[in-house]
Amino acid sequence: MNHLFDKHYTSEIFHELCNKHGILPENTILIKEDSNLIYDCGDSILRVSHSAIRSAGDMDVELDWLDFLNREKVPVVRIIPSLAGKKMVSVGDLNKHFTAVRFEKIKGSRISGSTWNVAHFQKLGKLTGLIHRTGQAYRFKDYFTYSHWDELIECSYTNILPIDKRGLQQLNHRLVTEFRSYPRDTENYGLIHNDIHHENYLLIGQRNKIVLFDFEVTCQSWYIYEIATALYYACLVGQKRNNLKFEQVFLRNFVKGYRKEYDLPPVDFEVVLKFMLYRDLFLYGYVAKMWQQKEVPQSTRNYLDLIDTSIAVRRGRLGM
Fold it and tell me: How far apart are CA 227 and CA 263, in angstroms?
């Protein structure tokens, strides 16, 4: 559990959040803990967030966007309202609060050796293109704050990247400066999921339809950034980091599926690679932040070492 929950989260708070959703606390199982706490509630999933990471206001955009996609029949997770009919409930005050959102449990399966193939890559690309195409019709609301990619709190965690001869903070600054110079228009920039990977969707039915969840870091960004993120995480399956052959196979098929729903100009692989390098730095900072005030276990150290190696390789490929 991250240090924010260690300090402030109590069983009383959890029970109150459960009561507002009509959930019996004794019927829940904590199944994941990092920036949020995720509980299996039998027929649903409960996500509890600390306001220091994601305030109730931050979640307004996520849930409104998710609601919109559901109305447009995009295969994404559904929200279960609280007993009072609210999309989320909070306990605490403006300075510090915990917010709980309840989602329908998706009854499906994870990817496997038999489903992780070019046909799946095309399906994943098609779903991503569908989200971006559908998003063109979404109407931004004046009373919501729609964060851009560099305004998420997680992006600030790169400030705690190690200061040493690797120059990671300087590298991050160089990339961010370049990205901010990229053009933004409604055809190539809009709301994105921002975390599409194999642990954030399930396969349902005989045709292995993809149903996407975990929209927590929804933001405004380039659609190609979403594509780069999907490629980044796909390379983690079977340890394919910086495997050029796999990158080309995945990207070619993902884009083929994507363009069945939404068209983009030719994908510049160097830009994709830069976004993947940025994701390395982003994740390094995120993991370091989550363990900032605790003893880092060996498994996490090993993960950081993998990211560090990936950063070095991608820098070499880009001449940075």
Answer: 13
For 182-199, write each residue's pLDDT tens digit: 999 999 999 999 999 999
Whether 184 and 37 map to the same domain: the answer is: no
Are residues 129 and 258 in contact, defined by beta-carbon separation less than 8 angstroms?
yes
Rounded to whole angstroms, the Cα distance separating 222 from 319 reads 23
Distances in whole angstroms, Cα of residue 247 to Cα of each of 43, 227, 283: 37, 12, 20
In this structure, is residue 25 part of a structural domain?
yes
CA distance 181 to 176: 9
pLDDT for 2 equals 58
CB 29 within 8 A of CB 105: no
Q: How many domains does the structure of the chain reveal?
A: 2
- Answer whether residue 110 is part of any domain: no
> Average pLDDT per run of 10 along the chain, which is 320 residues long?
70 96 97 92 96 85 96 98 97 88 97 96 98 96 94 91 94 97 95 97 96 96 98 94 95 97 92 98 90 82 94 97
In the block, which residue shows the tokens 């983690």?
Answer: 236
Domain that holds residue 32: 3-104
Say whether both 94 and 157 belong to one domain.
no
Q: Please give the model's pTM, rounded to 2 decimal places.
A: 0.94
Which stretches within 238-297 are classed as H helix?
244-258, 269-290
- Give CA–CA dist 202/287, Å, rounded: 25
* Cβ–Cβ < 8 Å for 168, 161: yes
Among 195, 186, 187, which Cα is nearest to 76's? 195
Each residue of 208-264: pLDDT tens digit?
A: 999 999 999 999 999 999 999 999 999 999 889 999 999 999 999 999 999 999 998
Contact 186, 100 (CB under 8 A): no
* Among 186, 212, 9, 193, CA closest to 97: 9
Q: Give the list of residues 6+ apart from residue 263 with CB closer than 8 angstroms, or none.
A: none
